[in-house]
Amino acid sequence: MTPPPLFPLPGTRHLSRRTFLTGSATFAAVALLSTRAYGVVNGRPKFSGYPFTLGIASGDPLPDGVVLWTRLAPKPLEVGGGMPPEPVEVSWQIAEDEAMTRVVQSGKATANPAWAHSVHVEVEGLKPDRWYWYQFKAGGEISPRGRTRTMPPAGSMPDRLRFAFASCQKYETGFYTAYEHMVREDLDLMFHLGDYIYEKGNEEGGARSHGQAQVFTLDEYRARYAVYKTDPALQAMHAAVPWIVTWDDHEVNNDYAGNIPETKAKMTTERFLLRRAAGYQAYFEHMPLRRTALPTGPDMLLYRRLAFGRLASFNVLDTRQYRSHGLFHDQKAAPADPGQLDPARTIMGARQRDWLFDGLDRSASAWNVLAQQVMVARPDLAAGDGTRYMMDKWPGFEFERRRLLRHLQEHQVANPVVLTGDVHQNWANELPLDPDKPGSPSVGTEFVGTSISSSGDGEATPARTNDLYAENPFVKFFNTERGYVRCEVTPKDWRSDYRTVPYVSRRNAPLQTRASFVVESGRPVLNRV
Length: 529
Prior knowledge:
The protein has 529 residues and is an alpha+beta fold. Helices cover 19% and strands 26% of the residues. It folds into 2 domains: 56-149, Purple acid phosphatase-like, N-terminal (Immunoglobulin-like), CATH 2.60.40.380; 161-528, Purple Acid Phosphatase, chain A, domain 2. The termini are far apart. Residues 1-16, 18-31 and 33-38 have low confidence and may be disordered.
């Protein structure tokens, strides 16, 4: 389809990236900060309905603080969310008890219309390794209560960490039953590894609707987030624990690479950068992210590092914004190709790669985690002779993939673990230095989580399972049901449980644990338990 006009910006036909970035950066700062300097903020707003329809959330916890989020939207699916085009005052409190009787901090924030009346409060001065409860108030309306926590002190060695990770929650292809089960888990953190929304229109035969048309403009992306965030199970999980998030492709455009859109979209680079700017702003508006992630036009700094004491260091990556274009355009799997070993091809970009390697080298953590989007392992999908690799994952950037694995080995990075989403399948992989050589040592492990709902109902044992195991001895588990992965980490070992539901096309699916693996500290191999 032909995309509609995006923004009424003069001269966009000849818009340079440098001009766009300079102007957008200025606009972003002014839009976020202007109400603190001048202008009138409405401290007693009157709403046309309950303004906290999109729930609340917290994220990116530190030992002394956390981000609190909400967005005012009494009519969330309308342009502007049913809010007047004026800044609105929002009060917040954070307490040591669920009843909110022992309030430790409170304050006021401004919900600005330029940022969809979203609120990002960066609370500081909290005690480390503590659970807290929080709440917002705007006018006479009070939000639900949320629970959050701070990280342990930087130099401490906690006894245990429990978290879950998930990705790919296409709204119309299934219900969020997995979140209904996840909220009952005893978790400290939740990681979302991308595809929080999907940008295209409805598919036929879906369980529900997220909108008929593909989204291109900022208002359209905002409305798409609003559809997803009205889901009660998703709201409940956001309110239960702090989230650490990163994106993949569908937050903007399927299979985009850097500043290049999906081939079928037929958009110019200039138009795509405008679309990417809209997608990035809407993502920031709807996630519990810090000001350091504030987008500047089509750029947004999302890779970052968080630590759970010295037990685990989490390197949250962005393998979408800086990647080179795909080798085969829309062809996602193909035989081995010399282009895979082109040193100029990158999935991380040089700056992010240097940041990652430097952080791994400096880390004193017992476990060093890469929380990211696409599969690092290189399974051969072709049975028998020949090869067929996933070219839109790390194997399509084989030079950089090998460089990462060599770095893990040569720099003796302690207990590397990769967390992955994207593929709508469960995989448990060891990471051999050279998968073409039998007996090549594993330098790390990778847990790939399936989707929450994307691709609809799955299978416990797909037909190709045995062929995958025969071709790839480093693959220890494969499954295409929906669900999430629950992880428990101690100084001595790491356990991952693949928690699945047999269907999402209808409600009330039961939860089961399909497989569990333990990695012992100092031994980067998977032990099924």
